[in-house]
Amino acid sequence: MRQIKCDVVVVGAGPAGSMTAKWAAKNGVDVVLIEKRQEIGSPVRCGEGISKAWLDEVGIEVDPKWIARDVRGAKFVSPTGFTYFIDEKNAGNEVGWVVDRVFFDKALAKDAAKAGAKILLKTAATGLIWKDGKVAGVKAISNGEEIEILADAVVGADGYESQIGRWAGIDTSLKPNDILTCYQYRLTNIKYDSDYCEFVLGSAAPGGYVWVFPKTDDTANVGLGVLTTLIKNPGDPKMYLDKFIAETPGLKDGQPLECVAGAVSVCAPLDSVCIDHVILVGDAARQIDPITGGGISNSCIAGMFAGKALAKAKETGDYTMNTFQEYEANWRDRLENKLWRNWMAKEKLVTLDDATLDSLVKTISEVGVKKLSVRNLLAVVKEKHPDLVKEFEDLI
């Protein structure tokens, strides 16, 4: 059996994996980045919206090739149709782009390659290699050939269904009320306000929301996420989305160019995302925003911290929790309070009826938000509806 030797093997070439590989490789780590698909970034399983605020922090240079739409802002639509607009005046660089994930993900992988990472496509991990009770790499099938990749550390960046975490014994299990089931069309021949990303709240998407993210003047990603505990049948997400489209004048004549279904974790932060010689990052580490279900920025930020910790591990020769605690500390310091707050807010929001959600959107509109963030939105809610945030007001 063919063997490959390296310092670190990263499983999964999405944003989390590529960012981890980049920051490790640029600091002298010998990295192999494997991706089970034949093309990085495809198929797209994402609404493709990002803000601009975090790109400089993780060293991503903006490339027009991966920007599909530079939007003016966002609009939040209540169950009865009341709309609150947010633009750059009160959102700044939290307003962002709708990107093309095929080009975006390839750009991140290209950065990893330029830093020195080696990329293997059509290479699927099939198990961990254990030696003397410690993880020592991964078994994989690469283009039909069984191989072993021997490494001092394994990074699980293999998404929602992460096998690396399960094989390593890290508890990433989810409760049904911490899973959104999603369905999305790329819809064309539509007429709508293509300058704004739209979020529709309420019973149109039980426990979640509908999104319309513009790609061009007449094409958008139109999808929704629904809480798993609030649906009865596997086909319900598609049913809810089809109903919404059919009842929305600007969308009802639209035609699908593609569709995609999947699940998203909307849980509280995990107690641990590492063991000796293993690190989880991004979706695999449940670092997804529980309110929005968005994970690109968190994945990239956590990937940067993971890559730096792996570089320190190589420098010291210690790939155990002694070194990986730095990664745990850094990503939690940057993200954990926000994830906890947004999870607790999500737990409350899914219990609200349409009338209450209408009142919340109107309240936010009347009071206004100086700068867009979930925290600032919740602060407005706290002022007018303190009972709704009483359980987590200390996090606002």
How does this model look, in words?
The protein is of the alpha/beta class and 396 residues long. It folds into 3 domains: 2-48 and 100-174 and 268-343, 3-Layer(bba) Sandwich (FAD/NAD(P)-binding domain); 176-265, D-Amino Acid Oxidase, subunit A, domain 2 (D-Amino Acid Oxidase, Chain A, domain 2, 2-Layer Sandwich), CATH 3.30.9; 350-395, no CATH class. Helix content is 32%, strand content 29%. It contains 10 helices and 20 strands. The strands form 4 sheets. It has a 7-stranded mixed β-sheet with strand order 7-6-15-16-17-14-18, with helices on both faces. A 6-stranded mixed β-sheet has the order 9-3-2-13-20-19. Helix 1 runs parallel beside helix 4 and helix 9 crosses helix 10.
Low-confidence stretches: none
Structural domain tally = 3
Question: CATH superfamily name of the largest domain?
Answer: FAD/NAD(P)-binding domain
Helix-strand topology string: EEHEEHEEEHEHEEEEEHEEEEHEEEHHHH
Helix/strand layout:
Blueprint lengths: L1 E4 L2 E4 L3 H11 L5 E4 L14 E3 L3 H4 L8 E4 L2 E5 L5 E5 H4 L4 E4 L1 H15 L2 E3 L2 E9 L2 E9 L2 E6 L2 E4 L6 H6 L10 E10 L7 E6 L7 E8 L2 E9 L8 H11 L8 E11 L8 E2 L2 E3 L15 H21 L4 H29 L4 H14 L6 H11 L12
Describe the structure using short key phrases.
single chain; 396 residues; alpha/beta; FAD/NAD(P)-binding domain; seven-stranded mixed sheet; six-stranded mixed sheet; globular
